[in-house]
Amino acid sequence: MDTLPGKMRATSFSLSGCFVTLLIWAGCTTVICFVDEKLLVQPATTIGYHSTEVTIANATQGGHTLPFACGNNSQKCMGYCNICHDLFGGPTKECLSGLLTFQCLSVYESAMKSLNSTDWCIWGSVSGLYSNLSLCTEDISDCLLIPWPNSLVEETFVRIHSEFFKDCPTEELSDPPPVIVFALVITPICLIPVMVSLVVLKTKNGDGSS
Asked: For residue 89, is it left (φ>0), alpha (ψ between -120 and 50) or beta?
């Protein structure tokens, strides 16, 4: 394995599909740097869902082109596609899962944990974060040309709901007032003898006319 300059040395990958990630948590900052399947330390960059900086150093050295189509030619989108190509051989579900986890979910979880837990159930406090998470998952899926929504996106939202919203009260259908219940029950009961009386009266009138 090649040696990185300076203090850091790369370790060999035990699996060809190993997703090497560096998360720097400092005021909700994250950096993910990939260099020809080697980890490279870069200065921390503050990110959001749409200002995410994914540094792909030397990803296209040697003039190689991607053997698969990428969603668009933007730097961010090409960065996602190069990660999938270098580490997974293509835009696989495994690559999408890793990107969703480290580019979308980790940012969302960090932002949610910066709020008071009492604010988690206030839609006005979390709606922006929720929408940004949805857009993040859609952007990455579109870059990899994987249909959105998909099972991995659904799993992501199931995870955040079970983690952050499980204790939030939900509006449930309540029973109507007792007066309404009584009226609904007694009405058909009262109609039954009336209908029987009408049938008997009609029958008697029919017999008399004959």
From this structure: left
pLDDT digits (tens, 9 = 90+) for 4-61: 343 333 333 333 333 333 333 333 333 333 333 333 333 333 334 443 443 433 343 3
Chain centroid to Cα 43, Å, comes to 28
Closest to 69 measured CA to CA, from 54, 56, 84, 59: 84
Q: Residue 201: what pLDDT?
A: 87
Cis omega (within 30 of 0) on the bond before 176? no
pLDDT digits (tens, 9 = 90+) for 160-207: 999 999 888 875 545 678 888 788 888 888 888 888 888 888 888 765
What number of CA atoms fall less than 13 Å from residue 41's CA on the CB side?
Answer: 8
Tokens at 34, concatenated? 């990939």
Helices 123-143, 151-164: axis angle to 10 degrees equals: 160
25-38 burial: b if 16+ Cβ within 10 Å, else e: eeeeebbbbbbeeb
Among left, alpha and beta (phi > 0; psi -120 to 50; other), residue 36 is left
